[in-house]
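A favour, since you know our structure tokens better than I do. Go ahead and set the record down below.
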Amino acid sequence: MVFSQAAALVNNDRKWDSPQGQCATTGHVCWPGLTPRSRPFRRHQLIATKRSTVKKVRKNYSPQEKVSILRSHLVDKVSALQLCAEFQLQPKIFYGWLKRLFDNGPTALKRRPTTGKLPDASRHGRADLQEQLRICESREDEQSRMISLVQGRFRSEQVKHAINDALNREEVDKLLTCILNEPLKYRNRAVAILSYYRHIRAGHIASFLRVSHSSVDEWTRAFAQRGCQTLLPVKSQYCKAKDKIYRDAVFEILHAPPSAHGINRTTWRLPDIHSVMAKQGLPIARTNIRKIIKDSGYGYRKARKVLTSNDPNYHEILENITSILHNLGPKEKFFSIDEYGPFAIKIQGGRSLVPIGPPPDRAAIST
């Protein structure tokens, strides 16, 4: 306090006149005989300035100390906050040490050669490069195998041999049939299971199928526990189109006129049959109604619209008209005129298909 106040009075012309060490200007108590221009004052001023500019020294921990702190957290179950408070650490620094410990763990646990001379740096670099190339080639090989599996290039014997008989013949056939015939949802499951039993990593399978890693794990776990029952589609043996109750109800409706069911029509339509079945408490899809009718040898046909006449000479007149049409020349036109008032026939301009070249002569056209 005294040194800071004395430093504030360095550039002023104030004097310390009081013999008891009291400043006449401010009234603060100081050492007797200490003035701003005296040598002891300047020395104490320098010490006070140095003390005020000293920064807090950061604690640097050695690798052994870091391992000891992390061991206390992982082995002795000491909380991270307690260790940070004890060793004056920021939680971010502590968890950074923990992350580097786990990231460099595989390198520390890597098996080293016990006999012979350790490889030099060049050999070690070449070995790492060869390992990376081998991993890349194996990844491409696995991807090409899964592509061939999706395309159906493998037979059941080849797949069974590739997975070392881990699955029986029936399960392999079901999975291959699912890959070829079922929707994408079930096809991905079958590909994942066969690829997993071929010792392809689940992460590679997930990236190939564009699904999550957890989905592949769940599919393989469910297949190992319950087989194909929960993963592949199970088709029900029951079909309403083959049920005698529904078949008899459909034909009972067809044998009655639509007016008997409150429908103002003379013929039945498929939506009308569907609505009447629902009212009777027998809901059924329209596709099943169509299948019932078709399996019984019946079908819907649209009525043909034909022109006819009450004239007794109708067939004779029709034969004359058809013979004229068959013998009609390229420059001839046929007109059928009914019995109604006078009318005029005029040539109207239009479009026709002509060869490429100059336009034809109009005189030739008129003739």
Q: What stands out?
A: The two ends are 130 Å apart (CA to CA). DSSP finds 17 helices and no strands in the chain.
